[in-house]
Write a structure and sequence with these properties.
By secondary structure, this protein is α+β, with helices and mostly antiparallel strands. 34% of the residues are buried. The N and C termini lie far apart (59 Å). Strands 7, 10, 12, 13 and 14 form a five-stranded antiparallel sheet that branches. A four-stranded mixed sheet has the order 2-1-3-4, with helices on both faces. The longest helix has 16 residues. Strand 1, helix 2 and strand 2 form a beta-alpha-beta unit. The chain has a single domain, classed as Immunoglobulins (Immunoglobulin-like, Sandwich), CATH 2.60.40.10. It is globular, with a radius of gyration of 21 Å.
Length: 254
């Protein structure tokens, strides 16, 4: 090799060595909070969920949050406008899967497999960190605007090791708040992040083949589109463990 060429080769090798290594994509972890504005212990958990979502404090982990508001507190004076029996049912399904007889709020569930009292930051960081070390099945989500109140969603998921899974899509809304006029939190203004406005079962994958589906996701006119996100994820049909999460779709103005 000629001296000039040798010098070029050395420089190229040196430049390559000095380039920082490309970091792997962060592992998504689904963090669900079961909460209610009728519960005096819930506001600190709502705030913790906001902080975890905004700060993303765990390296290598993308915390995907969902706030699901149960309806069993509504009989105690404050009927919470975002609550629904669907989320109470989902919390009960988790209790069965996790062999947990205690239904409570605030409850956080990490990747569908571990739960804890939702205002415990140290426990949250520890369990999310552990979940972030578990590899998930790849899921790809794309969207295209149909009109001001709907998008067309395409979901692809690689084959999962267990084979049997349920695939869901959630529409969440940020920047929601209420002035509570009755119940345990009377007189307080409570704020929330990632409130689940709609949770839909997209389909079942009962084999070890890939899963593909296309669906139109619609929004109610009163939802603020700029604050909406669409989250697709899959859970093991029996254990409810989250096996795949797509990158959340953030919606702007149509």
């Amino acid at each position: 090799m000629k001296p000039a060429l040798a010098l070029v080769a050395i420089l190229c090798i040196s430049m390559q060595a000095s380039q920082p290594a490309r970091s792997a994509d962060p592992t998504p972890v689904l963090l669900e909070l079961f909460t209610s504005e009728g519960c005096s212990s819930c506001p600190p958990a709502d705030q913790l969920l906001m902080q975890l979502e905004a700060r993303q404090p765990i390296p290598g982990v993308d915390i995907v949050v969902m706030s699901e508001h149960v309806d069993y507190w509504n009989s105690l004076g404050w009927k919470y406008p975002y609550s629904a029996a669907q989320f109470t049912d989902r919390q009960n399904e988790y209790a069965t899967a996790l062999h947990n007889d205690n239904i409570y709020t605030p409850q956080m569930i990490v990747d569908g497999k571990t739960d804890f009292v939702g205002n415990d930051r140290d426990e949250a960081v520890d369990l999310i960190s552990r979940a972030g070390r578990v590899t998930k099945t790849r899921m790809n989500v794309t969207s295209a605007t149909v009109d001001s109140n709907s998008v067309r969603l395409k979901v692809h998921m690689d084959p999962t090791p267990t084979g049997a899974s349920d695939v869901y899509v959630a529409v969440t809304e940020n920047n929601l708040s209420n002035n509570v006029t009755r119940g345990e939190n009377q007189g307080h203004k409570l704020s929330h992040v990632a409130v689940v406005r709609r949770l839909t079962l997209l389909g079942h994958n009962n084999s070890k083949s890939a899963f593909d589906t296309e669906s139109v996701v619609r929004f109610a006119p009163e939802w603020k589109r700029k604050d909406l996100r669409i989250i697709a994820f899959a859970q093991d049909t029996k254990t409810r463990k989250v096996v795949a999460i797509g990158t959340p779709v953030k919606l702007g103005e149509p």
